[in-house]
């Protein structure tokens, strides 16, 4: 990526490496909902937190449901109960917001000047449903300025790996007819869908300052990333990698 966040923002797009999970979940699986050993997932999350310089309690995550629901985090205190939603936004320093993916696009956003950060989970349902715009709107309500927001899209499935059928294309275009540009026909009834391109288009349409995709294809890079599509084609279970962002206290940089 040529874009990056300034030093008051700490962020990571973690791969599947350097964890303790085994087999199909090897090795830095960060989800307990996919059938992995919960003790191993806890150790993986501890390693993630340690890399960020925080404790597990300061790493906030969600029950993700491919929705357009955004959860504002206005305190450093951990959630009493993990909420359902697909994006987190905060103006609090020294906590970290995490999104788990395995082909969907993890989108990290920040207004570094105003000290507002966000993490969003954007699969095609969430993207067409408005998760990105809702995240930006929540950031603005917290004090961000749209033109100051930077967005980085992490590893996700690339268009050359994302073949879809007519049913998905029809359902998608019923909600956003302007998205036809991102469906490229490959044969009768088959298309390749450009998820990162579509996410970039939605971000740019919102008027933010800058956005970029890093170009890493989760489906193709099997040694580096979990891919739900790749695992499903093999009849295997699939782990989840995590992408995280947080605002640092000025005293730390």
Q: What's the order of the H and E elements? A: EHEEEEEEHHEEHEEHEHE
Name the CATH architecture: 4-Layer Sandwich
User: Could you say which overall geometry the principal axes of the C-alpha atoms support?
Assistant: globular
Q: Rg from C-alpha positions?
A: 17 Å
Number of helices: 6
Please give the largest β-sheet: 6 strands, mixed
Relevant CATH superfamily = CNF1/YfiH-like putative cysteine hydrolases
CATH topology: CNF1/YfiH-like putative cysteine hydrolases
Number of strands: 13
Beta-strand level of the residues, as a percent range?
15-25%
What ranges have pLDDT less than 50 throughout 5 or more consecutive residues?
none
Number of domains: 1
**Structural classification:** alpha+beta
Descriptive keywords:
single chain; 23% helix; 253 residues; six-stranded mixed beta sheet; globular; alpha+beta; four-stranded mixed beta sheet; CNF1/YfiH-like putative cysteine hydrolases
């Amino acid at each position: 990526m040529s874009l990056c966040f300034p030093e008051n923002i700490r962020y990571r797009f973690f791969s599947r490496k350097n964890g303790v999970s085994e087999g199909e979940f090897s090795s830095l699986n960060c989800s307990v909902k996919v059938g992995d050993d919960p003790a191993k997932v806890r150790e993986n999350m501890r390693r993630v937190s340690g890399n960020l310089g925080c404790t597990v309690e300061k790493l906030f995550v969600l029950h993700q449901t491919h929705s357009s629901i955004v959860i504002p985090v206005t305190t450093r205190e951990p959630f009493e109960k993990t909420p359902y939603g697909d994006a987190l936004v905060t103006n609090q320093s020294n906590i970290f917001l995490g999104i788990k993916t395995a082909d969907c696009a993890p989108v990290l956003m920040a207004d570094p000047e105003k000290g507002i950060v966000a993490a969003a989970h954007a699969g095609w349902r969430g993207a067409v449903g408005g998760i990105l715009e809702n995240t930006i709107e929540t950031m603005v309500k917290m004090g961000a300025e749209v033109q100051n927001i930077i967005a980085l899209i992490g590893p996700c499935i690339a268009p050359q790996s994302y073949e879809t059928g007519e049913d998905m294309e029809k359902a998608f275009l019923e909600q956003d007819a302007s998205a036809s540009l991102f469906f490229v026909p490959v044969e009768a009834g088959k298309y390749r869908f450009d998820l990162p391109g579509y996410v970039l288009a939605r971000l740019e349409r919102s008027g933010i300052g800058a956005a970029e995709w890093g170009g890493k294809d989760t489906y193709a890079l099997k040694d580096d990333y979990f891919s739900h599509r790749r695992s499903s084609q093999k009849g295997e279970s699939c782990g989840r990698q995590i992408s995280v962002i947080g605002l640092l206290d000025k005293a730390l940089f």
